[in-house]
Amino acid sequence: MIKIFKYSFFDLMRSRWSLIYFLFFAITAAALLYLSNDVSRAIISLMNIIIILCPLIGTMFGVMYYYNSREFVELLLAQPIKRRSIFLGQYLGLTVSLLLSFVAGMGLPFIFYGILASPELSNFLVLLLTGGLLTFTFVALAFLIAVKNENKIKGFGFAIVVWLFMAVLYDGLFLLSLFIFEDYPLDKFSLAMTVLNPIDLSRILIMLQLDISALLGYTGAVFNKFFGTSLGFIISLACALLWIVVPTISMVRVARRKDF
Amino acid sequence: MKRIIFLIVISLVLFTSPGRAAILSVCNLCGHTSITAAIEKAAPGDTVLVKKGIYKEGNIILNKPLVLIGEGFPVVDGENDSEIFTISADNVVIAGFRIQNVGTSYTVDRAGINVIRSKGVVIRNNRLINTFFGVYLQKSSDCIVEGNIMEGQAVEEMSSGNAIHLWYCKNIEVKNNTVKKHRDGIYLEFVDNSLVENNISEGNIRYGLHFMFSNHDDYIGNTFRNNGAGVAVMFSRFITMDDNLFDHNWGTTAYGLLLKEIYDGEISNNRFEKNTTAIYGESATRMKIHNNTFNQNGWALRLLGSCMDNTITANNFLNNTFDVTTNSIRNYNDYTGNYWNEYTGYDLDKDGIGDVPHHPVKLFSYVVTRTESSIILLRSLFIDILNFAEKVTPVFTPATLVDEKPLMKPVL
Question: What is the pLDDT of residue A135?
């Protein structure tokens, strides 16, 4: 597995896309820091970008990489290697290379800006953490979809729908249910809805760290209380990890049974 | 007969002229060792000069017109029990004291300086530390409270007093004071024709400045920072609010300026920086809100449907999360000629006025006022898409709440 991970990782690191992904984040972060001159505001703007783009890029790259490396996978399958090692290795190779581009792209401008000595360091780390979690989650989902669908068009379409659902439609349904059930106490419900969607969870986690949380008023106070307790923290972390572990395991299981 | 009256008047003027006023010194080695004793000896119009030292005399009652001056800030200590100065005479001056430790009471409003039914009292350049109420004026008029520093130790509303408390007063000037950590910084109830100018009100747990049932008052050039709410104006008429700074009144229930049942006021040239809600209005009517700058607030203007006939012109709305919100589908206020930094229109004829009207109410802010818990979707992509769709064709937000002449450049 390590060998395959290494191979795909270095293969991807040499590719143009990693560089572009890195440059994108580096330029965006640097521009936002330079224009806003305020770390807190830059973090909010970057949050908007991260919670949309990390899942999108993760999904697209995941599906693309799987379909492109299909011949290589078939070659590997002919060797005496466990299927689990092949797919996990490729998954980790892609995720880690994306993560590296992301962290380096975000990190360099902020380090030059002096984030290490600033009180906003913890907020920045939360930003990196959520970006990382989202990348892991959505690459795993993309691999799962790609392994399941032999048809490339179908796979791509399905992956985009999943991203669209998580990033946009879910919130629409959320809002709609808040409207329909507005006569009922909705704190627990909105907590559950938030924790269940990794994108919403990331968004709330970052916002609660920042000054902007005061705008959330009563609901924000409920959320703050929940995430402040160790139980709430464990639950949200467990949910985030489940979103990584479940798709990964099912991807491996599907791949193991699959007739290539 | 006329001559006799003239002589009487002349002699009165001569005999009561200020040159006759004596000066009584108070210190350990002076003629008087306690302030109370000096006051008892003093004739009306005399000056009592208190030298540096610590005086623990319980409640000191001033019932004749005297000038009390502290030299080098003598400490007058209430030992966490009684009220300190109680004034019930006209034209009293108290200046240069350090007044401290008035005990908390749940039944009596004890104060550092309590002025009862008096005229022309001047309270100047004192330091009041941990006085339950700082300066308390009741049923008094023509008084001046100037240059005092008051620092309380308020923790909760129930057990704390106000720094400057005015009740049934007229023609009072409150100037250049610094008030911190009380319940309300400055409190006015049934106070008319008064002026609150250049004060700094910080860290008070309820309001920086609080008006109740007060009319024809001005507050100008004050700074309100980190209070529960900067200023609350309730049940009042003809209040002028000019050139104040509302800074960082930030928290889940914090406001910069809270308006409730207020008529005919004017809010001009103020700066609202980083308040959760810059102006919150409930039944505010015929207000003129102009030339203010709203920067980095959560909500800049939150006027509920009960607010009517207000004019909002020539204000700058910069970087607020929500510029304007309301809970009503109808609009009875006039929002013309403001600068909105979210305005995306153009100005073809270069007259400085945008050619496309601006709708400052976002759909999301309308949704939030309807269902409060939906605020949790703040900064979600779905919400941005909704806002955009609504901006193009307003359906839910009040279609008449529109700035027909949005400015292209900020008002200076």
Answer: 95
